């Protein structure tokens, strides 16, 4: 990924494959440069973690200004660790979120899709032929429930997207080295993928570690997606730049991922 430090703006990352894509605007923002105080310092966009609402609003405005997008047209969802995905075309008129879901797709230009993360996987899909995008939030529950598959299939149903045309990206999230899970998760992974090889790693003491990056890559490949970029950035290791629910014992903020088709 490319690290972007705009003059007077918030620091963010962009995927290499889309860094020069004129049809897209996107950014995976760090925790740096915002208004929030500890333990949410500083660019927190999570409104349910205990931060002051005015700080969250100021941080969102800084993000929109940094990317040069219209925050009034931004769409988001109330994230619930599901695999539910919805098609959107405009923000809701009376509330700040569209539905309880963990994925959004659109073919509308100038409509930013924004989601919040702190260890879970940001999944971004772009169909350059039909000019459509999708974004999803995938923790272990969403991953085993099929968040990646549902995101792609929602694009297929709504816009006629063909998997072979899709360019996919897996953003900063917790790595297998830091993501210890219980046996109930191991069982869920086995049921969802039909195998554990390459998905669950065992430590010498028998404890299990789940590779979310590989799981979501594999899920997309099984659907026919061939172009997949993985950031390789572990949020639990890089708490200097990203929020990590696991590494910070649940008392932390959420960083933003923004995805938009340019007008």
Q: What's the main sheet like?
A: 6 strands, mixed
The tally of structural domains comes to 1
Helix content: 10-25%
What is the correct CATH architecture? Answer: 4-Layer Sandwich
Hey, roughly how much beta strand do the residues contain?
Answer: 15-25%
Radius of gyration: 17 Å
- On the 0 to 100 scale, the average pLDDT is 97
DSSP E strands, number: 14
Question: How does the overall form come out from the CA principal axes?
Answer: globular
The CATH H-level homologous superfamily = CNF1/YfiH-like putative cysteine hydrolases
* N-C termini distance: 24 Å
Under CATH at level 1, the class stands as Alpha Beta
CATH topology: CNF1/YfiH-like putative cysteine hydrolases
Query: How would you write the strand order of the largest sheet?
Result: 4-5-8-7-9-13
Uncertain stretches = none
Order of helices and strands: EEEHEEEEEHHEEHEEHEE
Count of separate DSSP helical elements? 5
The structural class is: alpha+beta
